[in-house]
Design brief:
With about 160 residues, the protein is of the alpha+beta class. It has two helices and eight strands.
Length: about 160
Amino acid sequence: FLLGADYPESASAASAGYIDPAIDEVASIAFSFRDGVVGFSFSSWLTPGPGRTRELIAVGTDRTVKLDYVRGERIVVVDSRMVREASGDYRFIDGKESELLVPWREPLRAELEDFLKAAESGGKHTPLADAESGCRAVEVIEGLKKDGRYVRPQS
């Protein structure tokens, strides 16, 4: 969604069940998108209550953006980048941090309200999370569940 891509080019996953081996309680996924963009996802049901997080961190060439879905009222933008010095070593430059304040809405509620708006609009409103995007997500996840890998079919 953020990259305007329907599918990742490829993905790989690892998961495990510790309390109940029949349930994937911990999962990690690595995604590869076109133009060299990569994404990583980690999820665990085992994280204790106060330590639970739902974050999106996007690292770009000049800025990093962090969104906390649990607290959600702010988006943190950091002007940061890696530079290569004359010696060949890399150095991280951490620049100015700013905040964008946004009204917080519970994410699942907002998604369901958007879906209901689309259902009531008689086709005039397309939901952000439509059936096609849901099917694509399930297709990738089913590929990962099968053998831990997903490779985008060539069209």
